[in-house]
Amino acid sequence: MKTLILSSSLSPTSHSFTLCKQAESHFKAEDWIDVIFVDLRDYDIVPTHKDETEDMKKLSALVDSADNYIFWVAIHNYSINDSMRMILDTSLYGAKWKFYWILCAAWWSNSYLATMHLTQTCMVHHRMIQLPRIVYATNEDFDDNQRIINPEIWERIEKFTQDFTNIGSKLLD
User: Domain 2-172 carries which CATH code?
Assistant: First the structure.
């Protein structure tokens, strides 16, 4: 199973990136999951009204080749970050009928519904299938060195990766 992990935060001190790397290590332990990790900080992405960059063409090819996706999203002003929005608008057309999961980090707990925009776009516009678990972390779940300090987040990531591998293996059968 080819899994594309997309980390959309552009911040050098991203909490969602920290979550992303933790889950990636779980998936790499599974020999039947081929993990492709995309850090959007390394990609030149632009909005739809501009010409598509070479990096965006590469990203579209990675999306086309993957079986499923994990979206790691930073939440800003009660919505997904701009880089994820640009990817939704430009690079997910090869994701139709594939499944995805969401993990996100926000500054405070009041943004817990922010992923609904992502869910609606993926399900309605791209005809993707969301699997029923979201990991949501806030600023209080991390220390000053970007380490996860909340044991509940560790448990959620563990449960997330278990569910992902369980459902993924059943879909392959």
Answer: 3.40.50.360
